[in-house]
Amino acid sequence: MTISVRNEQAEAGTFEVRSPGNGDLVGSFPMHTDEDVAATVARARVAADWWAGLTFRERAERLDRFRGIIARRLAQLAGIMHEETGKPHSDAVLEASLSLDHIAWAAKHAPKVLGRRRAGVSLLTANQAASVEYRPLGVIGVIGPWNYPVFTPLGSIVYALAAGNAVVFKPSEFTPGTGSWLVDAFAQVVPEHPVFQLITGDGSTGAALCASGVNKMAFTGSTTTAKKVMASCAETLTPIVAECGGTDALLVDSDADLDAAADAAAWAGMANAGQSCIGTERVYVHTDVHDAFLEKLVTVARGQRAGTDPDATIGPITLPSQIETIRRHINDVLRRGGRAVLGGADAIDGSLVQPCVLTDVPEDSPAVTEETFGPMLTVSRVGDMDEAVKRTNATTYGLGAAVFSKKRGTEIADRLRCGMVAVNAVFNYPQLPSLPFGGVGDSGFGRIHGPDGLREFSFARSTARQRFTPPLALTTFGRTAKTDSLATKIMTLLHGRH
Ligand code: NAD
């Protein structure tokens, strides 16, 4: 893969990061080995004990200060993100700023979601005081992608930290500088112990983290890599949360606000150069409004330009290998009778891909079935919304979706098989820290964000305290025939009529 090409020039034991826009050297980082990873995890274990010993309030106070640093230095952080991924600076600022609400939410809500609370008792267990609390797992390994190098990993990291865990973070080999910035900022507010540490490297370093015996892995990346992570973690029975890719659809009903739908489709499909896990890749439009929608979409998309200059609204494709995937998807569509209403084969120039809108695309085309990860949308006419739902659900992925409809938005949304749905908007659910984020099928399992995201990095601990000796003592060899008979009568009375 690309990293080895980069390493031909890099010093032994290091790798270089180059700007996807102009190839400039952005930085050089250590390629951490199995031993480095093991030592980091060992340090994290000590830190985890200390961090778990703090109160929720003490952890929240530190997370709040971490949030403050990010908020005050957004431009600096965004500068590194821009250099490493090529995304426009303003998009980088937006991404980093959207993580702030999550840090605040996780810190504030951890005590309520995870703290000890009473659990119910039944007639036969009325003598018990039952309670449950959610305890930290210990050390969480986080493996991140490059496309949202702040928002995405922090979605695991801050929830894991708020739940009382230490974190060892391996950012993508394309964005180690961004990861390093985050870890340094956290160390400023938590200087006592290395609660949040960085390891850098490619897949081999990630594999070492999977095998290191951490208490849980939070993986975000492709479905293919998630399977390798899961197989490796199986060796040590290390649980994982897998946040993978998708081929998200946007559905446009006949009564939709077409201006809003076109604007949203263009943004969800083309912002970040289309390199968004929850980015729209497919659009299904009711036949009554198909032509009007397409015209509006093309107008918005034509107004966008991929480039490396400050005025470009779309940055370069970050991963050099992705260009071939995008080219293959476009060529397949064109070869099989599809049309490029905007862009097409010549939209690709080096690492830049200009906006593409494709129609008459066969449903078994890779542009529909696979993640394209480029500023490209396929738009298909459907006879009714039943067909739109059916075609949306005909995928092995199931991450997110969006529905535009004035009257039936929620009704249509409810029929989609995916983890998250936006109605009359796009990308709104990740902005709501109270909502769990994640997918089904090939898009992964487990959840980050929200109460589920906090519980994902903890284990349920149950306590049942006997307050007084029960009149019917059941768990004793001294149980009498009379007790048995009475207990059976009570149970039959309680449950027998069902
Ligand atoms: P990737 O799978 O190539 O790499 C992800 C991470 O895994 C990197 O840090 C990489 O070094 C590491 N890795 C590679 N091989 C490994 C191995 N054998 N063991 C352990 N770690 C290994 O993905 P990517 O190209 O960085 O990211 C893009 C993908 O991520 C897309 O599919 C996108 O949809 C997905 N994504 C999903 C979400 C989500 O929340 N669901 C968010 C962002 C991106």
Automatic annotation (TrEMBL):
Organism, as annotated: Saccharopolyspora halophila
Family: Belongs to the aldehyde dehydrogenase family.
Domain of life assignment: Bacteria
PANTHER family: ALDEHYDE DEHYDROGENASE-RELATED (PTHR11699)
Coiled-coil regions listed in the entry: none
Position of the signal peptide: none
This protein's UniProt keywords: Oxidoreductase
Name this polypeptide is given: Aldehyde dehydrogenase
A Pfam family recorded for this sequence: Aldedh
Domain Aldehyde dehydrogenase: 11-458
